[in-house]
Amino acid sequence: MHVTVVGCGYVGLVTGACLADTGNFVMGMDIDPQRVEMMRAGRSPIYEPGLTEIMQENIKTGRLKFTTDMAEAVRQAEVIFLCVGTPPRDDGSADLSIMRQVAAEVARVLAHEAIVVIKSTVPVGTGEQIEAIFQRGLRHQVAVVSNPEFLKEGSAVDDFLRPDRVVIGADDAAAAEAVRQLYLPYVRNQKPILIMSRRASEMTKYASNACLAARISFINEIANMCDQLGIDVDEVRHGMGTDSRIGFQFLYPGCGYGGSCFPKDVQALAAFGRAAGYAPQLLDAVHQVNERQKGVLFEKINRRFGGELREKHIAIWGVAFKPKTDDIREAPAVALIDRLLEAGAKLRVHDPQALANVARRYGQQFVYGDDAYALVSGADALVVVTEWNEFRNPDFRRLHEVMRQPIIFDGRNLYDTSVLRRYGFEHYPIGRPGIGNREQGTEKI
Ligand SMILES: NC(=O)c1ccc[n+]([C@@H]2O[C@H](COP(=O)([O-])OP(=O)(O)OC[C@H]3O[C@@H](n4cnc5c(N)ncnc54)[C@H](O)[C@@H]3O)[C@@H](O)[C@H]2O)c1
After folding, report:
1. Mutate to test the pocket of ligand 1, among 260, 265, 266 (most ligand atoms within 8 A of CB)
2. pTM above the 0.70 mark?
3. Which range, of 9-13, 132-136, 179-183, 213-217, averages the lowest pLDDT?
4. Residue 374 burial (10 A CB sphere; 0-12, 13-18, 19+)
5. Is 28 helix (H, G, I), strand (E, B) or coil?
6. Which of 11, 65, 71, 91 has the greatest number of C-beta atoms within 10 Å?
7. Residue range 249-288, pLDDT digits in tens
8. Mutate to test the pocket of ligand 1, among 5, 10, 15, 328 (most ligand atoms within 8 A of CB)
9. Which residues line ligand 1 (CB under 6 A)?
10. Do 78 and 189 belong together in one domain?
């Protein structure tokens, strides 16, 4: 099939490359000429495992091309995927202006029948709005289908190639069937393709993300109470997760969820619920608990240093909102960095993939680099914020040697307190008894 993908970010580029890989002819359209230039050269503008390889193979066969020109992009398109961003407005509701703009542009240049698929995460009712744009100047039949994306950054290619399910929301059976055909190669393992109403499909995406976010905020709330009550949340987590009705996924306490999806989607769902006349109490609480959780590490650090962080050298490992991505949007580390800078701390920051984005955001406000150990040298504390694999088993002896003070704030509960005790560290995890400092009065943490 001839497919066009409008917006070549995390979702659009992965979608385009993976669809080309099963034999479709894909045109990727993006407004950013630099991005298009890079992609044409077979380089991915984002870090995503496996993506460069799949791009390069399909560019070579001529099945994957890129352009900034919408008319060229849709000239042969049978199916057009809209994958542009839907960022939050100040009130938390989704900003659909880019979505509307690209729909209008497609409508203006499209000279044949086509199926438009909304892959971006959009509030219930967006399908109707986009359909109205196509009907306004209608010369040709255009069906608008909802097909939300469930991929996770860090394993996006794998998630696209092996989805748990595909959701297609369409009120037009023929359009739904055409989109289903595109997905059949990825569900040969009997995973379902669920066809439902367009509005139910739009809701399914938000409900799924909000459910996962709620589990994270729930366990974070339990962890904070464990901190107060002197209980190890990890024991509680095991006690809960072994219940087959509960399970372990998304039940890991930490310093809050981030990224470009959970924070904005929970707020957008609450916003369109409110607009529909419903008071979404649970969703508001999920968001508020997460906002508070992003401050937990700072509070622990501040308490440990008696409220005096000026000139303290703090090393940070991990800025990406989660491992295996370079994405720092809404990352808990960003909230922490902002507060530490405000308090006058001197920062040294390391992340295996996200430093270019860190540099774009912070410029020269602190030191950052690729050598995790060099950055920790002379530090008063190390704060681990993202659970990259390479941070799981560091050389504790070396860390202890090079740090000015052997203090670790463990934002993802990566380390075993008994191991850190052996090496002589103070250890401040989340919701677990750690090793505090008696003189500082932080032995109960
Ligand atoms: N990132 C994820 O993990 C993920 C997962 C599922 C769903 N989503 C949803 O998918 C949508 C896209 O997210 P993303 O993370 O891929 O965004 P992104 O910011 O990575 O990519 C958006 C792309 O659209 C391009 N763009 C902007 N304006 C344009 C225009 N007028 N014409 C053409 N291209 C334009 C940008 O240059 C960029 O390349 C959002 O609604 C998001 O909520 C994201």
Report:
1. 260
2. yes
3. 132-136
4. middle
5. strand
6. 11
7. 999 999 999 999 999 999 999 999 999 999 999 999 999 9
8. 10
9. 6-12, 29-32, 35, 83-86, 98, 101-102, 120-121, 149, 151, 153, 260-261
10. yes
Same domain, residue pair 15 and 146: yes
Q: Is 211 part of the annotated catalytic residue set?
A: no
pLDDT reading at 363 higher than 60 = yes
Asked if 215 and 309 sit in the same domain, the reply is no
Task: Locate 282 and state its tokens.
Answer: 């649970």
Q: Are residues 270 and 142 in the same domain?
A: no
Strand-by-strand arrangement of the 367-368 sheet? 367-368, 346-350, 313-317, 381-384, 407-410, 426-428
Cα 345 from Cα 301, distance rounded (Å): 11
* Ligand 1 center–CA 6 separation, angstroms: 9
Asked if 265 and 339 sit in the same domain, the reply is no
pLDDT band at 443, cuts 50/70/90? low
